Amino acid sequence: ATEEKMYRPNFHFTPKNGWMNDPNGMFYADGYYHLYYQHYPEKSVWGPMHWGHAISKDLIKWEEQPIALYPEKDKYIFSGSAVVDTQNTSGLGTGKKAPIVAIYTLHDMTKEKGGQIDVEQQDIAYSNDNGFTWQKFEEGNPVVKNPGIRDFRDPKVNWDETHKQWIMVLAAQDRAQFYSSKDLKNWKYLSEFGKNIGAHGGVWECPDFFQIKVKGINETKWVLIQNLNPGGANGGSGTQYFVGDFDGTTFTLESNFAKKVETERAAWLDYGKDNYAGVTWNNVPAADGRRLFIGWMSNWEYAQEVPTQSWRSATTIARELEIIKKGNDYILINNPVKEINKYIGKTIKVKSLKGKGKLAIAEAGKIDFTKAIVNFNIKNLKQDTYTFTLANANGEALTFGIDNTNHYLFLDRSKSGKIDFSDKFASTITKAALEGSQKEGVFKIILDKTSIEIFYNNGEKVITEIFFPNQPYTTLSVSSNNGVELSNVEINQLNIN
Ligand code: FRU
């Protein structure tokens, strides 16, 4: 009961019982956003993988549904994707509704225990009732056999409108592989990408690959999202991305982006420790046109040890991905979906806040920080460190801000509350490097009971992390050595739970 009250998020999705990791198979159909997820309903640790299921009308409020896909004995249902097969290219549709086809990895635990290589293959299942009930495609599975690669998983399928084909990207150990199909059942190997490019501190998992319009200009690019574990920006699980072009067969990095990954090794979708395995929604209405993303808000370093017992893990807030062009650079930005704004209730506005020492932004009792959005601009930045502190009466605090001497954003949860369940949880300060000295910064921060999602400069740098205070944070303050200047401070109370 206390863990429900203290740690069950107000609006981030969690399964009622048991374990969750990656989001899987997301699509939109007939008014509902569907979300499936790696799920073990019986215990709050990883185990025989099912696909759990939840639906939402607005990407914010989720309703858990019956389990969608069950493992068979030692054959687990690993991560994958789903598409709305509008033209019934698969022939698996039986009625008026377009069939939904799920493509996932079947992982054979007996082979794994036997030390075999061909442990993973790609299977499909289909639904003729918009994703509420499923049939495995027994007669035709696997649709992609294991080619002799131990880590060969997490197929993500998208329709390639330019080349009129289904494209599957999957993670093959240290690279991504591309396949194409006309009917979702027969797949042809096309090419691979990524060996010796980008971050390789761990196994590549859960890719996504799609075409996207560059914001504000008449250009399109292709984005490869490539999760990896370990080797993330701040340790453990992390999400990198690549921007380039695709000719229907081969993915080629855009030239400036290629230079960037040569020098920096990787571009990160999120610098926080708790955004992993995120991929995007299929079939978002064309009139809407958004590329919508959600991640698993945890990290394999400690996910199975976090201090909740009846369930473990939440998803991130759903986000919109966009590509912007800044100078010659293509940057993937991510921001919370606008639907969150529907839940804004009371708002505290402070026109400007200026001074030295520690300044209170919100005193105790003003805002319930377990469901809030904090917005502000920080101006006239000097060579100084600007530290924001969310604190409770227990002396526990979560701090974040800008070090404008060494040029990075930071988040420190070492005094945030319960931390000693894992020595990986708070042993380092999370940093996101900034391109030189900042003059001004724009922050949007989403807070729930156990999570903070920091969107800096409209999603150019993002930090997502979880925390477990012994009582909720009640105050927010800012401090620096030489004075702080904030403008457009607006704290939104969210009416949601
Ligand atoms: C990523 C991952 C995937 C795999 C799944 C198993 O977190 O390791 O590569 O399909 O989890 O649950």
TrEMBL record:
GO cellular component terms attached to this protein's record: cytoplasm
Domain Glycosyl hydrolase family 32 C-terminal per the UniProt entry, residue ranges: 367-491
Coiled coil feature spans: none
UniProt entry keywords in alphabetical sequence: Glycosidase, Hydrolase, Signal
Span of domain Glycosyl hydrolase family 32 N-terminal: 12-332
Family annotation (SMART domains): Glyco_32
EC nos: 3.2.1.80
Ranges that cross the membrane: none
Pfam families cross-referenced by the UniProt entry: Glyco_hydro_32C, Glyco_hydro_32N
InterPro entries in the cross-refs: ConA-like_dom_sf (IPR013320), Glyco_hydro_32 (IPR001362), Glyco_hydro_32_AS (IPR018053), Glyco_hydro_32_C (IPR013189), Glyco_hydro_32_N (IPR013148), Glyco_hydro_beta-prop_sf (IPR023296)
Record-stated family: Belongs to the glycosyl hydrolase 32 family.
Protein name: Levanase
UniProt gene name: sacC
